[in-house]
Amino acid sequence: MRIAVQESLLSNRSRKPEQAIVFSVANQEFAIAAESVQEIRSADSLASTAIELDCVALPKVRHTVERGRHSYYVVNAGVHFSLPVSRPTLVLIMRQLRVAVLVDRIERMGEISGVYPLPRAFAGDERHWYRGLAYLEDHVIPVVRPNGFLTDEEFQLLDQAMSSAAAPLELAEGAPPA
Amino acid sequence: MTTAIEARTSTSDAANARSFVLLHVGDARYALTADIVAELAPPVRLHSFPHTSPLVIGVIVRRGRIVPVYDAGPVLAGRSYSAHRFYLIARRAFGAALELSAIPVNGECELATGEVLPARLDRHPSICGTLQVGDEGVDVLDFETLVSSLPMQTEAKTAGEQPEARP
To answer: Could you give the CA distance from residue A151 to residue B18 in angstroms, rounded to a whole number?
Structure first.
């Protein structure tokens, strides 16, 4: 039987420092690897390219935004983490994922000494949400998994909602003039 | 209030006597086998973040390690006890590995040895026996069953219902 599986925060064995962005939602702090974020924009600046999306089964996603030639599903992080209603002002656009995340604000950017495994006591959705935990300035902060905001099934649901929203428009455009 | 686990001499010298840590959850006293107890930690900051695991209320940092904290109150007494600021740290088995876990206690813990009798029938499934301490019968906790239990309020709900995330 193995003992003392919880690695000490003082030990940097097998941990590598990384740059992280610490953001907050409803006064709750989270960290995300800086390299997984392509762009940070104000929510207002993206309003003109936002398209409303009607997917009742997934209330955390209500819009898509266009950046370059790509479309991103906008996930409200507060709804995703079941936090109290807040006022998101920023959008984190993920790199190599069709996901953008609405957050309240950026708290700081800096180096975290490592990501420590989530204790096995945490056995729910959080194992998908988080890569692990970081210890930063006397705070333990969950480090979010960029691909944890939407599951494959949720992407499928959203793609279907997008297709069904586009279909009537295509039909109308292709219809013969009355 | 005592901050160290105090030794208590039992009247029983029976061969099957084992050591237990006596702790308070709410108004009741419970016993936990001393074999799995690592230490009684002083009040430290509880860090919480959203998750969906029942009973887990956050983590503490103790001796450089991140230790999950379970709230035993909702299982044993149907409510949380926010006044509990100390943490009894015990080892929980996950397959072949052990992980430190903590439950909030009020700091009044002591050591006792004694014979364990079968649990009374009306007890919660996390009670695995009764420890005779003097004239008192103290419920013995099965730590694994305790931390795997659902809070009383949740148990009453329909099985299979998704737990809500708790910050």
So the answer is: 49
Instruction: Name the pLDDT band for B85 (thresholds 50, 70, 90).
Output: confident
Domain extent listing, chain A = 18-172
Fold of the CATH domain B6-150: OB fold (Dihydrolipoamide Acetyltransferase, E2P) (2.40.50)
Look at residue B22 and give its three-state secondary structure. strand
> Does residue A11 surpass a pLDDT of 70?
no
Each residue's pLDDT tens digit, B18-48: 899 999 988 889 999 999 999 999 999 999 9
pLDDT for the residue numbered B165:
62
Q: Where are the domains of chain B?
A: 6-150
- Residues B50, A28: C-beta atoms closer than 8 Å: yes
Of the pLDDT bands very low, low, confident and very high (cuts 50, 70, 90), residue A44 is: very high
Under 8 Å between Cβ of B66 and A4: no
Instruction: Tell me how crowded residue A100 is: count the other CB atoms within 10 A of its CB.
Output: 28
Q: Give this prediction's pTM.
A: 0.83
User: Burial of A62 by CB count in 10 Å (0-12 exposed, 13-18 middle, 19+ buried)?
Assistant: middle
Chain B residues within 8 angstroms (CB to CB) of chain A: 45, 47, 49-53, 56, 59, 61, 63-68, 70, 91-94, 96-101, 147, 163-167
Which residues of chain B have a CB within 8 Å of the CB of A138?
Answer: 45
Chain B contact for A141 (CB, 8 A cutoff): yes
How many residues are listed for chain B in this entry? 167
Find chain B residues with C-beta within 8 A of A140's C-beta: 47, 49, 59, 61, 66
> Is B101 in contact with A2 (Cβ distance < 8 A)?
no
> Scanning every residue of chain A, which has its alpha carbon at the shortest distance from the alpha carbon of B102?
A121
Residues in chain A: 178
Q: What is the pLDDT of residue A81?
A: 97
